[in-house]
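Schema walk-through. Below, the input block comes first and the output block second. Nothing else is stored per chain. Lengths vary across the set, and this one has 268 residues.
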Amino acid sequence: MNSKLTEITGNLLPKQKFNSIAYGCTSGTIASGNKVVKKKILKAKPGAKVSDPISAAINAFKKLKIKKLTILTPYAQSINKTVVDYLNKHNFKILSFHYLNLSSDVDIGQVDTNFLYKYLSKIKLNDSDGLFISCTALPVLDILDKLEKKLKKPVLSSNQVLIWESLRNTGYKVFPINPHTDNKIINGEKVYNNLEEIDDHVGIVNVFRPSEETIEIAKQSIKIGSNVFWCQLGIHNESAAKLISENKIYYISNKCIKVEYERLFRKI
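--- output ---
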């Protein structure tokens, strides 16, 4: 993959300028080195801001003051060693390591979400400051909130931190919201308990919560006068969709905002 990275990047909307490019492979970035990945991408798309999962994760760890980690990966043992060595090199202490020993991206992407929740919720974090779930192919976005409630410590995944950093790189001002958090800072931004606490106009409400919780978020979105109510991949609620549409707010569900941004605005 690394040998063809410049060629592959150049084939993405040829001759079009990109504001932000996300390289979606955690173990691939570690194997090649984030500087090498960035250099090869910029050779094809100069001027773009490049993000990758492991660099985004490290930035998030630092902002959250996470120094001691418990980790889960789907990888085989040979790849796991590179993950541990990389994080140790960046001064993070790995207190506990868990892995599924899968070698195929297809198998990783098909891991049952309920199995993952049951497996991860039994992990004892003890002295760890948080849990990091590595690999962008592993379907864990929908269970991160439940896991944080269960484990009572920060839970971060490769996709979560990559999406966050990519949005910031694209130029959006991001207001993080977590109803179960008080006075927390993520990536230098205050975390709010709900939409109504934000003293600014919110154009897009981007929802990463379980589908059953979106109706309450929809009500808040209406109160603050947002323009768009966007549910990420795997998230949809018919009642929320009806309520949002009745209030003349655009409703979008089961789509990744970064993918759609690049598809819709590729000619700008």
